[in-house]
Each structure stands twice: as structure tokens, then as C-alpha cells.
Amino acid sequence: MDIRIVKHVNKDEDNRVEYLLINFDYCDGNDLVAKFFEQEYQMRLDEKIDGMFYSIIKLRKDSTEYDLIWHEDVGNYIFSLKQDRDSILELEQRLQVIISKLNKITEF
After folding, report:
1. DSSP 25
2. Whole-structure pTM value
């Protein structure tokens, strides 16, 4: 499987920069992504919020906070609550490491 990320500017959310996980549309897939963030970056995971059409996992470490979301219309995506340049770049770099791990475990 070729999982990749696509940077998306969500104009409906005040131009928030989000990263969509392409070829990874699993409603429980974010549990694995969150676990990798916990192991790789020692982030704390809040309890998963399960809605009828979505789920949210908050990831935190010090002043860094990400929302990892699965929504039935969009799939899996993540964004930093801080939308400054450095926070967005840090998330993108971390996410590339996580995507590499996901691609390794999904190779056939």
C-alpha cells in the first residue's frame, strides 16, 4: 500500500493547514497512527472521542497539540492546533516518519 500525506488548506476552518492521509481510510487506523506518535515522540494520547460519523484523538506533549481525526466524508487527517510556521513544519516532518512506518507494515 502506498500511504502518503497531502497538505490541505481548509478554508472553512480559517485556512487551517491539515494533512490528509491518502490510501489510509480506516475508521480505526488513527489508533495505530496515535500509537506511533506516542512511541516515537512520547506524546500523550487523550481518550478517543467516538461519534457516529467521526472519531478524534488528541495528541499532546508540552505545548504541542495535534488533533487526529477520522471522518466518514474525508477519511483520516491531522492538524496542529498551533498554526504557526514552525509547528506546521514540525508536524509535517513527524508525520513523514509515521507514514514511513505505516508503509513498512503494510508492504506485501
Report:
1. -
2. 0.92
